[in-house]
Amino acid sequence: MPYVMVHIPKPPSAASPVPRSVPTSADVARLAGVSRATVSYVLNNTSAVRISEPTRRRVHEAAKELGYVPHAAARSLRAGHSRMVLMPAPAIAMGPLYGQFINELQWALSRLDYTVVQYGTVGLRGDEAARAWAELRPVAVLVPDAELGPEGVAVLKRAGARGVVTFGPERVEGAHALLMDHDAVGHCAGRHLYARGRRRIGVVVPAETGLETYSRPRLEGVRQALRGTDARVTGVPLAYTEQSAAELAARWPELGIDAVFAYNDEYAMLLMRALQDAGVRIPEDTAVLGADDLMLGRLLRPRLSTIHIDLPSGRELAELVDRVVRDPGAEPETHRVLGASVVQRESS
Amino acid sequence: MPYVMVHIPKPPSAASPVPRSVPTSADVARLAGVSRATVSYVLNNTSAVRISEPTRRRVHEAAKELGYVPHAAARSLRAGHSRMVLMPAPAIAMGPLYGQFINELQWALSRLDYTVVQYGTVGLRGDEAARAWAELRPVAVLVPDAELGPEGVAVLKRAGARGVVTFGPERVEGAHALLMDHDAVGHCAGRHLYARGRRRIGVVVPAETGLETYSRPRLEGVRQALRGTDARVTGVPLAYTEQSAAELAARWPELGIDAVFAYNDEYAMLLMRALQDAGVRIPEDTAVLGADDLMLGRLLRPRLSTIHIDLPSGRELAELVDRVVRDPGAEPETHRVLGASVVQRESS
DNA sequence: TTGAAAGCGTTACCAC
DNA sequence: GTGGTAACGCTTTCAA
């Protein structure tokens, strides 16, 4: 992005305030004429101790006047634990499905009084990343299985994490697992295309790195669904560019494929357009099937068939995390959470 | 999402390890037979002090054996500051453009040795949110201007934030600003449609809440571009559903609109399809213009014209943050960072 | 009802 | 070169 920042002179404004140092509870105590303990009692509404109303007011006023804000690090240091649930910020934008999932989850965890923090880990691999997360002493960690090994789980637990929950296609030793076996997506796709009479089935494998975790099991799922039948399955690499799609479409006749499961709706839209431009009729010559059930697929002509993916609700997941935190000794559980179903429209 | 988690019994695994307490540097010192200070020197590679090689080795081995991980809260408490840059996790999934922007930014800030944390603030409004952020004592905060008022800026600064940078269409008193005036996007769109000979111009305003911050200035920009001309500008509400689009398309003739700027490419695709289904010819009867320059727009027929939006690179932004942190006394600066240019294809 | 003091895990200063 | 010690900001027990 070659865009250059243009500096605009700041309009005259109020004089910058004197850079006071950060007010502490001691400052509040001093201003209110009470002890630090009293300040703590008042601001935390400690029920075990009864503070007179005038004192409460004085403390609150002092806190407000100073703009006092408690220091989270000091607090959790003293308490010996935090309510922080850590999850890695996704390295690649993973589409609206994942985004909504995250939002729901954050909301549900907030309701349970947890604080969700997405930690950007760039360049750190495996155990390095686990160590960086452990430094924050989160009470729970929610992480794609691809980013954490068994040693990573151990590091986090030793650092006091009461819950480690992974999600993705595989289990990780020692952690609770939300098993999203994308095999099921592929399996569903394979069965559908076979049922529609297709026998030479292509499966798009994105060329972009970072997606193998999902694309490989999806391909495997198709293979598995068609094992023992007369159908043939072919992996088809495709980058998310018009050029790549055009090149693939040009080779289409020689591939001899009569149906393609295109990883997701976006790749499906890209490929479908390229095939149409190359004169391939859809679905007569080749059926096209996407995944994710995006709204946009419905707008194409022919309308895009897709695999609808059911993710667990944020509320369920939050409750799982909470349960794990409350009973850290429990055996790691494995939950199968990914539902897949065909939405047949016109492209298959 | 009605999907129900299926519990799968855990396979037999290694006995769960004894729940030791979290190892501290004191434990490492004890095991290595040195003092806590020495441990600190060794693990932090303090250059001011020279430690014998055998001692170093003993410390490293002890740390490894115990699985010692330093406690970030304790460290920053002692240090009096952190390297944490805080940004709110977006409440609504904001498309691939924003996602890539965030990723680039995280990467660039990591290069400068900052730690990026996305803090999920659900339900907290304005100053409440600012206070929650302030508790973490971040060294810098990067936040959409819509989520922070001047008082919020003051709270954060009093809590020790050396840099507060807002981005979005408006400035916030006391903070550095990345002025993304979406007026420019609308302006660009208005000029283009006018130049194409259109005179009765509709501007889609998403019905979804949370987007007003962007949709309002875009509409204003179109108005502004066409002020004093013979063109007429009409705001057109549209929800992101097929039904809403169909209803709008049915009313299209009575609206008497010959060109529409559709907020972004996704709304444009939705509307364009509905118009086509209703028999409106594009671009002959009505021109359609999107924004964001998504790949998918190129796949439509007619190909979707769009406004390409140039965001600042993550590197530039990271450098701005770094500069602000290093010189917190500087006057707040305002940078104009949003470039808009027409990409004309076939729909306009 | 309030105050004094200990301690959470680290690091930096100053003696040894 | 290495080890004690104080201090960061907060909560909580105990004593007054």
From TrEMBL, chains A, B:
InterPro entries: HTH_LacI, LacI/GalR-like_sensor, Lambda_DNA-bd_dom_sf, Peripla_BP_I
Any one GO MF annotation of this record: DNA binding
Keyword DNA-binding applies: yes
Keyword list, A-Z: DNA-binding, Transcription, Transcription regulation
Domain of life according to the entry: Bacteria
Ranges where the HTH lacI-type domain occurs: 23-79
Protein name according to UniProt: LacI family DNA-binding transcriptional regulator
Taxonomic lineage: Bacteria, Bacillati, Actinomycetota, Actinomycetes, Kitasatosporales
